[in-house]
Design brief:
The structure holds 2 protein chains of 2 kinds.
Chain A lengths: L15 H5 L4 E7 L3 H12 L4 E4 L13 E3 H9 L3 H7 L1 E2 L2 E6 L2 E7 L11 E3 L2 H16 L3 E4 L3 E7 L4 E7 L2 E12 L6 H5 L5 E4 L4 E8 L7 E5 L8 E6 L4 E7 L6 H5 L1 H12 L5 E9 L2 E4 L4 E2 L2 E3 L5 E2 L7 H20 L6 H28 L4 H16 L45 E4 L2 E4 L9 E6 L7 E4 L2 E8 L9 H5 L7 E4 L5 E5 L4 H11 L4
Parallel strand pairs in A: 1-2, 1-11, 2-8, 5-14, 11-20, 24-26
Antiparallel strand pairs in A: 3-7, 4-7, 5-6, 9-10, 10-11, 12-18, 13-16, 13-17, 14-15, 15-16, 18-21, 19-20, 22-23, 24-27, 25-26, 27-28
Chain B lengths: L11 H11 L5 H19 L2 H17 L1
Classes of the chains: A alpha+beta, B mainly alpha.
Bound molecules: flavin-adenine dinucleotide.
Flavin-adenine dinucleotide binds next to α2, β9 and α9 of chain A.
Chain lengths: ~550, ~70
């Protein structure tokens, strides 16, 4: 179907339990092997937890979907061992241009700060992303991750101390049980319906045509966005470069079009020619028309079922938010589940998954709704303001930050989380409790590397600057916590840790397994660390 | 309240005339465009979000009361 990509097909194998007709209890079951389900499988396996992953299909994402991935999800994938391969294959970009008619009105540079391992943004086709995660799962965790393709969940019920599921395969229907289920079955989630959860929000009266074309063109690797271009009047258009000389073009269509008509090559090709010029040779790889919604669940936990990714929240694609935010759901959830499964933290800790990620989803939704209102104004007045901003932006600097062609996805700090210990000392900078940790170049045992790679083993860490408490580990009610002394165990080779963490001698941070700040102080105080760790694991 | 609501324009009649003259011969649509630009320019000049919110609320209050 595609010229540049061959879809892998994964074999359906009948499971032992279906063959023998026994009902087996699994520790963890994932529904859906999209980007979020696959991330879940890797994170479980990395923690040593065996997991079954079910998918009703047997290949990766069909056609063209997500393109842009942001720094934080890439850091998570890097923790899981797949980030580097994704970055190597991708197109890294940082400049975005906004045009109106034929004129450049605004240009932004993501201006990534120096001295971070992971770039601000990359572009990569979703099928590569999924393929790489499946490869990694098979290579590293063949014994822990049990892939079950062509296995559709057709019923699911919370039963007190477990979840009961029914799975349909080419060999019929079988039953299984799970201690915990993570539902990553996408925007049309069957799980959500089986649990009877309300999925509320807004559907937008607009449609977009996405076309992937293969061409050798000398457009730079930048994000180009047009309002009202001469080749597509009264609508917007977005151009993005992907790997393998594939380019993504998004045409806003409006509400009155006929999606089936628009999708026909004889209608798409002239549109592309008008845009690219007659002399550019291209081949059409993929076309589809989509409509989007902005909606989310109010609770991402229902008994022993956790809902994550598009199943829990759906946003407009402006600003590349869908997969980016879903990956962060998993980063938040799995370490908590591990502690609860091991009996080291109370069940209550699991509620903080919903608390923190519902908050993040709401923030994400707000950003995506704001972009949508700018790109597709809903009323004459809204359009007048939008056009006024664009007019003013060419002449006046002040109007440029108001231009919203999609704000790019940034992680939402859990500033109000019940797991945080509020600051009692004074700090500057961004690393307030609830924030994901900033990266920095470091040297450990004579080897240069990256800070985040040294706090990537899903254990709590105490980071303390130039004060040696004299021990390397704490054990707090059975929860291990490693002590890293900056200046001794770890050298801050460019002083970026000091700068980014506003550190002075004695400054001490408690970091969560998902690389978020739980607490910080100006001095090392073991008692305070213990209390903060108990708070961060819902033991207080 | 940070929004100034006491008279602050030195020659009120001059200002008012200039504002009305600005819209002369414009279509409704052009007037809407002009107003939008004017609001954006002034809002940026003020900058203070508290003042802006108070002004927006004050402007709407009358309309909802009617
Ligand atoms: C045009 C477009 C552009 C986008 N661009 C971006 C972008 O640039 N950046 C970004 O971050 N996001 C983007 N997104 C969003 C991104 O594609 C989604 O957020 C992402 O795919 C969600 O992943 P998921 O794993 O939650 O769900 P999905 O990818 O939908 O995966 C769900 C999986 O569950 C399986 N499944 C469904 N029901 C069952 C069942 N009953 N039993 C078993 N399995 C089941 C499905 O077969 C599927 O494999 C874009 C989306 C679109 C449409």
């Amino acid at each position: 179907m595609l010229n540049t990509y061959q879809y892998p097909e994964f074999d359906y194998v009948q499971s032992e339990e279906q063959k023998s007709g026994t009902v087996k209890r699994h520790k963890a079951v994932i529904i859906g092997a999209g980007p979020i389900g696959l991330t879940t499988a890797l994170d479980f396996a990395k923690q040593g937890i065996p997991v079954v992953i079910l998918d009703d299909n047997n290949t990766v994402s069909i056609g063209s979907r997500a393109v842009c991935y942001a720094k934080r999800p890439l850091e998570i994938w890097d923790r899981l061992g797949v980030g580097e391969r994704m970055i190597d294959k991708s197109v890294v970009w940082k400049v975005g241009k906004v045009f109106r008619d034929e004129e450049l009105v605004y240009q932004f540079d993501l201006l990534p700060e120096d001295d971070h391992k992971i770039p601000a943004f990359i572009n990569l086709q979703q099928y590569y992303l999924e393929e790489y995660m499946i490869d990694e799962a098979k290579k590293q965790y063949g014994d822990l991750i049990d892939f079950r393709w062509k296995s559709k969940t057709i019923s699911l019920k919370n039963q007190g101390d477990h979840v009961a599921l029914q799975i349909e395969t080419p060999d019929g229907v079988y039953k299984m049980e799970a201690d915990y289920v993570v539902a990553c079955d996408g925007a049309n989630s069957d799980t959500r319906k089986m649990l009877g959860l309300d999925f509320e929000g807004q559907f937008f009266q607009d449609r977009f045509l996405i076309a992937d074309v293969v061409m050798k063109a000398d457009f730079p690797a930048e994000r180009w966005f047009w309002f009202n271009p001469p080749f597509h009047r009264n609508q917007s258009v977005l151009l993005h470069m992907q790997s393998d000389d594939v380019w993504r073009i998004d045409f806003q269509l409006g509400w009155d079009c006929d999606p089936e008509e628009e999708k026909k090559p004889e209608n798409v090709i002239p549109r592309l020619k008008a845009m690219l010029g007659d002399d550019v040779e291209f081949e059409l790889e993929w076309v589809s028309v989509y409509q989007f919604a902005c909606r989310q669940l109010q609770d991402f936990k229902c008994g022993r079922v956790f809902i994550a990714g598009d199943a829990a929240h759906q946003v407009s694609p402006f600003g590349a938010r869908g997969a980016n935010t879903g990956v962060q759901d998993i980063d938040n959830l799995i370490w908590k589940l591990k502690l609860v499964m091991d009996g080291k933290a109370p069940e209550k800790l699991l509620e903080s998954y919903s608390e923190e990620r519902v908050f993040a989803a709401a923030d994400n939704l707000l950003n995506s709704t704001r972009s949508t209102d700018f790109i597709t104004p809903k009323s004459a007045v809204s359009k007048a303001f939008r056009d006024a901003v664009l007019d003013l932006a060419s002449d006046y600097e002040f109007a440029r930050p108001l231009v919203n062609s999609g704000r790019l996805s940034m992680p939402t700090p859990y500033i109000h989380s019940s797991l945080n210990t509020p600051d009692e000392d004074t700090f500057d900078g961004k690393m307030v409790p609830g924030t994901n940790c900033a990266d920095a170049p470091v040297n450990v045992e004579g080897t240069e590397g990256w800070f985040l790679n040294h706090i990537a083993d899903s254990r709590f860490k105490v980071l303390t600057f130039n004060t040696d408490p004299g021990f390397k580990k704490l054990d707090i009610n059975g929860i291990p916590c490693d002590v890293i002394v900056v200046g001794k165990d770890m050298l801050d080779i460019k002083n970026r840790l000091k700068e980014r963490y506003d550190a002075k001698d004695g400054t001490t941070y408690l970091l969560r397994p998902d690389q978020h700040v739980a607490a910080r102080w100006r001095t090392f105080d073991q008692h305070k660390i213990e209390t903060a760790l108990k708070r961060a694991t819902a033991q207080l | 309240m940070s929004l100034k609501t006491q008279a602050n324009i030195e020659r009120p009649d001059d200002f008012y005339q200039e504002l009305i003259d600005l819209h002369r011969d414009l279509s409704e649509e052009q007037s809407r465009e002009l107003n939008a630009k004017l609001i954006l320019l002034l809002a940026n000049h003020i900058g203070d979000m508290t003042v802006l919110s108070e002004a927006m609320n004050a402007a709407k209050k009358d309309i909802e009361a009617k």
